[in-house]
Backbone:
């Protein structure tokens, strides 16, 4: 993904690969559709990826990745199912930043400093 050659990602996807994006109620049924969707996604520049966390076993993995094109920054939490060294299934969540639902500042601190 970091090369931004999204069609090359197909090399690590199983023929039966599919992906789900539950937040937008989308199912991506094939490796070709997944690669084409990522290649067509509008961007202000090349996408850069920062791996925040990776948890993995021989058959499953979870990543927490920050993605930016220099203008837009997003975070993706991705669950992978792996078989025969190929990704079979991805379920991916793209959470959006939001404010706490009520004033909880007496019990919490910001994760990151506020930008002036």
Residues:
């Amino acid at each position: 993904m970091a090369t931004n050659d999204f069609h090359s990602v197909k090399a690590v996807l199983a023929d039966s690969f599919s992906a789900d994006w539950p937040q937008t109620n989308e199912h991506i049924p094939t490796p070709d559709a997944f690669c084409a969707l990522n290649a067509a996604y509008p961007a202000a520049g090349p996408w850069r990826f920062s791996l925040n966390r990776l948890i993995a076993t021989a058959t499953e993995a979870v990543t927490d990745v920050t993605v930016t094109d220099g203008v837009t920054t997003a975070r993706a939490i991705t669950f992978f199912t792996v078989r025969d060294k190929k990704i079979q299934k991805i379920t991916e969540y793209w959470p959006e930043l939001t404010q706490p639902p009520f004033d909880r500042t007496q019990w919490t601190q910001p994760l990151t400093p506020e930008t002036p």
